Amino acid sequence: KQFDQWLNEFRTELEPAMRRESLAALVVFGRNGKADIVVPLILELLDGYNLRTVAIMPASFDEGSAELQKELNEGKLHEVYHALGFTDVDDLQLYLTADRGLMRLAPRAVPLLVKHVETEGRPSASRVAAMRTLSMEAHEEWLRLVPQLVARDGLTAELAMQFFMKIDFLVDISNYEECLRNLLTEKSSRNHVAIVNALLSNSDKIPRLRKPIRSILQDLQKKSSDEKVQVAIKQALDRIARDPDESRVVPVSVEEKSKP
Predict the structure, then answer these.
(1) pLDDT tens across 122-155, in order?
(2) Of 59, 87, 230, 248, which is most buried with the most CB atoms under 10 A?
(3) What is the DSSP-derived secondary structure letter of residue 120?
(4) pLDDT, tens digit (0-9, with 9 covering 90-100), for 70-122
(5) Closest CA to 46 of 102, 121, 109, 105
């Protein structure tokens, strides 16, 4: 079939299994010059799913899990996919095809995804998917976007920090520290407590970030007049001070594990 045939089938077909087949074909075309058409289709499709589901699904369903795929095919996960808002296993498979397709097309659609994330308005499932995809596939663009996102509504800030924390070991430490400082601005002040808690989570997981995070929190402690922020900072600094032994924190790479 030609591209237009698959496109028409995807737009007119109602059965999830048939839509999944046509979408998989469209993704192939997307990797060969049609990403500007296919990516908006995927984003539109994802808006039909629950926002929270889109946020957590990649962590719950591993594309490379043969056992999971076997259980899906055998219909053993009814309770799971119904709880996540999917009508049946075909609907879940359609979602997974869309999610993976977006990841595969991301390198060809970074400007489009950035524009979608930057659009003002209420959080949407497609915007969450675009945020997550950029955090995994376009680190420089993502680091530039995060300070803007944490200054928005609480949910957007929470999700931005959630995805931000997952790329800490993938980027250069100096850039990461600079971005950390850029998060705690006057514009993001209403979300400072959530950001402080996220930074504490990072300091627990990644030894090399403990010193810069401690410094960043101490700087904010001097500037902020918000009582709740001060409480969060004090709790975070006390937690870091109670466990100075970095060897107790799980390193992020084999190389760091080998260091004395």
Answers:
(1) 889 999 999 999 998 888 899 889 999 999 998 8
(2) 230
(3) -
(4) 666 666 666 666 777 788 878 888 998 999 999 999 999 999 999 999 988 88
(5) 102
Output 23-30 pairs: Cβ under 8 A, ≥24 positions apart. 23/94, 23/97, 23/98, 23/101, 24/97, 24/101, 25/1, 26/101, 27/97, 27/100, 27/101, 27/104, 27/105, 29/3, 30/101, 30/104, 30/105, 30/108
- Give long-range contacts, CB 8 A cutoff, 24+ apart: 85-88: 85/49, 85/50, 85/53, 86/49, 86/53, 87/16, 88/16
Largest Cα span, the chain: 64
